[in-house]
Amino acid sequence: QPAAAVNRAQAATLFSRAQQVAPVAYPGETGGILTAINGASVSVYTDQGLQTFNLAADSRFYRFDSDASLKSSSELTLYTHVRILGGGMDALYVEQTDPDQQVKTIEGAVSRVVAAQNKIWLWVGDNPVEVQYDSSLVVKKMDGTKLGLADLTVDSQVQVKEDAFRDKPLALEVIVKSAPVSKDGSGTVAAAGNGALSLKTAAGADETWTASSSLAVIGWDGRVLEGGLSGLKAGDAVTYTVKDSVLVSVKVTTAGSASVQGKFSNISDGILTVLAGNSLQSNYLSESVTLVIPGVEQPVLGDLYKDDQLELALDAGGKVTSIKVTNRSLSTLTGAEILSYSSDQKALTVKGTNGKLAALQLSDKTKFEMNGTTLNLATAAPLLRQGQRVTVGYSGSDAMLVRVVYQYTGSVVLLNTATKTLALSLDDGSSVTLPFDSLGVEWYGRSGTGVADIKNGMRVTALLDASQTKAAALRVNQNVQYKITTVDPAAKALSLQAADGSRTTVAAGSLVLKGTDGSALAFTGFASGQTVNVTYAGSTPTAISLVKVTYGKIAAASADSITLQEYGGSSQTLPLGSGFSIVKGGSAGSSAAALAAGDRVEVKKNADGAVVVTVNAGVAKTFWKVDAAAGQLLMRKSGVNDNDYRFAYTSSTLITAGGQPVAAESLKDGDSIVLYLFEGKLLEAAKA
């Protein structure tokens, strides 16, 4: 007598075990190995061979481990034992009676396929192995993409699933793990050089190919690019040919960033003209064109001189996106004293704080600034009086910049309240010593600060009094790190959120904008979700810099570096540097011993430039199914109020099992899975 009520699953288990001891055949009952099932039929391999039964709309499906009827026949596991009840060739009841697939796996390299004999020969180690198959054989890639027998090329690395229930086993499935590839394709260059090309194909897949030693790269204009792959730029649209997994040809169809070199001629009506070789070339300027002139801060197009040697980058439409002056060598004198100025000759003589004299020629091309305002020569001339302090930038004897000094920015070397003396080390390597009567201190995010809070080595901006001889106030320079929440292109403004949740909006139109490598960046380079550092002088923002954030899996960690397998990228070793921190389980520490191989992490530098490694523990879930149409992975709910069970995934989302990439379709209902989300985006789903 059972001690408690016996449910359907338990009863099925009891009968199944009893059948193993005393087999009993009932009318309308068939037992065997499930080999195929769809909405219309189910096939099983029995002692009498392969049998196929019809399915009806009211056919019921069960598993040994559940008392509830299954929603779909697809929830049954192929190649497991099943029991079928019905009448004739109709299956009204199908139950999977155990979890074990009656298959074995062989891994090896394809030697040859003999289609006439339905044979595949593999090399398994040093031994040839024969594999038989029939018309039901499935050939596919690791991601589930269907292939044909013709795709089983010599030396392809494959995994063969072979049945273990026939007297003469047949291959059920061949999964191609890797194969020599020969194909033609098109895509967009992601990176090129060092003998390899990485690109995103027209279908959206990421590919990397090793280049042939005889590879010729043809540019968009039909010429062979000097330097081969290194002549390609990120964003270039290309067609390419791969033979036996080696890149043999590349042709640029549209330059993502074509390069032109030439001498500056003129700018008129938004058109830039340069002398390239022996001919003039004209191109429209893009709305977000950037300009870099060595030694000139925040240059404008009017700062270009005739015969300046320019390097231009063009977009796919031929518009100029960036201009770089390559032949100027700019010298700077900071805080120089004006000795004389001749308005007739437009000649300015100055003496630097280091005693150096410079006689400079001014022109309408000379840029004049005062308190951040740009002036023309006529307006600036009255300011060029003897004794006035200015910062001058010059090339040869030509003055490029004259800035009336109203402040100095540098690192504090000395701050003596007894002698009322401030000494700064300036960015150009010079130094300046300023007396002061009293000093107000402005520090972003802090109130009640004073001179006692200023320490040697701190970076500050010292504002001068009207005489330009004394320091009147100090603005502490510091970086504050934010996440961009929204971008306003019309106002050129960024809405930002700090780590503590506080929010602010910064107008970026007049600020210095920099990319992750410190180079000039157009406002269009900012996007919501990015991390940025805003540089403040006191409470005034002066610059915005993008912060590089890397996500990946730790392959190895030492006391001073980590080796990271970046999601969607390659393996790289990153030095930790000084002052680094490791954030794990919500606690911050300063020892890399807290890291372990397999940790999923975010790596970035904080506002002070120190490396921060944050470990992502992942979210443990129970897998339910894939909603391919919606591009989502669905998890089993932990309760009626659990609404966090749908997770969007893309072709770049890494799906792994045992540390190896697998297709999302290989996940099964009930699988334990850990989801790794970064900034709300699913980057990896790992089957436990």
How would you characterize this protein structure?
With 688 residues, the chain is mainly β. It has eight domains: 89 residues, OB fold (Dihydrolipoamide Acetyltransferase, E2P); 76 residues, OB fold (Dihydrolipoamide Acetyltransferase, E2P); 72 residues, OB fold (Dihydrolipoamide Acetyltransferase, E2P) (Beta Barrel); 68 residues, OB fold (Dihydrolipoamide Acetyltransferase, E2P) (Beta Barrel); 74 residues, Nucleic acid-binding proteins (OB fold (Dihydrolipoamide Acetyltransferase, E2P)); 112 residues, OB fold (Dihydrolipoamide Acetyltransferase, E2P) (Beta Barrel); 67 residues, OB fold (Dihydrolipoamide Acetyltransferase, E2P); 69 residues, OB fold (Dihydrolipoamide Acetyltransferase, E2P) (Beta Barrel). Helices cover 3% and strands 55% of the residues. The protein is built from two helices and 52 strands. The strands form eight sheets. Strands 24-23-22-27-28-25-26 form a seven-stranded mixed sheet. Strands 41-40-39-44-45-42-43 form a seven-stranded mixed sheet, with no helix packed on it. It is elongated. The model has no long low-confidence stretch (mean pLDDT 88).
Key words describing this protein structure:
OB fold (Dihydrolipoamide Acetyltransferase, E2P); elongated; 8 domains; 688 residues; mainly beta
